[in-house]
Amino acid sequence: MLRSRVEKNIKLRSRVSKNIILRSRVEKNIKLRSRVAKNIILRSRVAKNIKFRSRVAKNIKLRSRVAKNIKLRSRVAKNIKLRSRVAKNIKLRSRVAKNIELRGCIAVNTKLLCRVLVTFSVGPLEGRLNFCA
Question: What domain of life does the UniProt record list for this protein's source (predicted)?
């Protein structure tokens, strides 16, 4: 009787020790699973950060494009101002050319007038004759 109880106790103790070992394994597995879950969360955060950084890089590229466009637009505005100046200069030069032509016509007309006055020299026109000569 005692032997059988002792044998039962030994078996029970071995079962208990096995249960303790299994429980420790289960606890290790639970800890490992929590680590895995934390790693998954961290990986998702890393992925979000990568996406955010790519967005930032895209924004930086777009801002540099915008800056280039602003510079080009200022160049275009300067060119437009310069072209308007050129147009004004062309208009002024055409006016000058017209003035030169008119002065030539005036010179020709004065020469003709002098000839006319010289040919028809009458008493009251003598002052004009001296002035034209």
Answer: Eukaryota
d(CA 40, CA 34): 10
Looking at the whole model, is its pTM more than 0.90?
A: no
Task: Compute the distance between CA of residue 126 and CA of residue 133 in angstroms, rounded to an integer.
Answer: 11
* Separation of alpha carbons 95 and 8, rounded Å: 129
Contact in structure between 118 and 129 (CB atoms under 8 Å): yes
Angle (CA) 113 114 118, round 5°: 120
79-105, pLDDT tens digit by residue?
Answer: 999 999 999 999 999 899 888 888 878
Q: Cβ(126)–Cβ(115) under 8 Å?
A: no
pLDDT in tens, 3-26: 788 888 888 888 999 999 999 999
